[in-house]
Automatic annotation (TrEMBL):
The lineage of its organism: Eukaryota, Fungi, Fungi incertae sedis, Mucoromycota, Glomeromycotina. This is 20312_t:CDS:1.
């Protein structure tokens, strides 16, 4: 499990966030989904986030999907606060 904002800063450059329209974050691989990787869409697997997630830089974000598969508590997303001020 990783701090959500630290993970975001390591994986999506700030200069690409304004053009991002889709952000998909999954704790495990989910077959059947095929979303183009890179701006304007980002797709991540095997990522479990915790804490605050600040999406204020994503001014054109239209779709956000943060999901977990299964009931194992270690694989559940633990986002405590979501910041989206437009």
């Amino acid at each position: 499990m990783v701090n959500a904002n630290e993970w975001l800063n390591e994986n999506i450059p700030k200069n690409q966030r304004a053009q991002t329209t889709g952000l998909y974050i999954y704790s495990q691989y989910r077959g059947g989904y095929n979303i183009n990787q890179g701006p304007p869409n980002y797709q991540f697997y095997n990522t479990t986030l915790e804490g605050e997630l600040d999406l204020n830089d994503f001014v054109n974000l239209q779709q956000l999907n943060i999901g977990s598969v299964g009931q194992d508590q270690d694989q559940q997303q633990k986002i405590t606060h979501l910041k989206i001020d437009k």
